Amino acid sequence: MSAFETEEQQVEAIKKWWKENGKAIILGAVLTLVAVGAGRYWFEYQSTRSESASVEYSQLLSELGQDNREAVVKRGEYLVNTYPKTGYAALAALIVAKARVEAGEMAAARSQLQWVIDNTPQAELKDVARLRLARIQLAEGDAQQALATLSGIDSDVFAAAAEEIRGDAYMAMGDTGAARTAYQKALDSSEPGVDTRLLRMKLDNIGPPLKADA
Question: DSSP for 13-72?
């Protein structure tokens, strides 16, 4: 014999089950729709922001080509502040930093480069920012801080550039032995075809190691 003797009993059982479970089912369905809608909205929102950032970056490059420093700084900083999570923000910050250096605004340049180091997930851009920041620190007479900044560079791509700046820092500190070692590492790490005449000149100016250094 079936669990229910009549159709009426089956209907009543279904009604009872729905009364006990219907609200939970409806709530689950609503939450699912909300989650799907929110995910779609977030994707569209991010896509729109990326497109807007791309337009701003294209305009920034155009202003850069026109050598309009004031416009470059203004748009670049707007891009960094408005679209910090996009890939264009770090590129814009590097451009703004260069413009600030050319204007002699070193503190502002350091701020932009430090922003790149602290915020971009792209290791290569971090290292570019570290190299430029170390050069500024060295130019400002802080060789020790420049060495600390260079210590964060991991990429072999920038090894030669990092070692050359490291050599300059050691020279500024009067440590010719360490400078010679760094310059030699820079020379050894240089890619074929790269102009190394200035680097070799720096090595020649130091001269060969003394017997005490050997």
Answer: HHHHHHHHHHHHHHHHHHHHHHHHHHHHHHHHHHHHHHHHHHHHHHHHHHHHHTT-HHHH
DSSP string, 129-175: HHHHHHHHHHHTT-HHHHHHHHTT---GGGHHHHHHHHHHHHHHTT-
Confidence class for position 38, pLDDT limits 50, 70, 90: very low
Alpha-carbon distance 87 to 74, whole Å? 18
Domain spans of the chain, in order of start: 10-121, 130-214
Q: Domain 130-214: which CATH class?
A: mainly alpha
Q: How confident is the model at residue 111 (pLDDT cuts 50, 70, 90)?
A: very high
Question: Which DSSP state fits 1?
Answer: -
Q: What is the pLDDT of residue 89?
A: 92
Domain 10-121 identical in fold to domain 130-214: yes
* Residue 95 token pair: 């451009």
Per-residue pLDDT at 39 = 43
Contacts of the segment 42-51: beta carbons below 8 A, 24+ positions apart? 49/83, 49/85, 49/86, 50/83, 50/86
Question: Which one, of 91, 127, 141, 135, lies nearest residue 112 by Cα?
Answer: 91
Phi then psi for 43, rounded to 5 degrees?
A: -65, -45
Q: Which of 150, 151, 182, 188 is nearest to 168 (CA)?
A: 182
Q: Which superfamily does CATH assign the domain made up of 10-121 to?
A: Tetratricopeptide repeat domain (1.25.40.10)
pLDDT one-digit tens code per residue, 77-104: 999 999 998 888 999 999 999 999 999 9
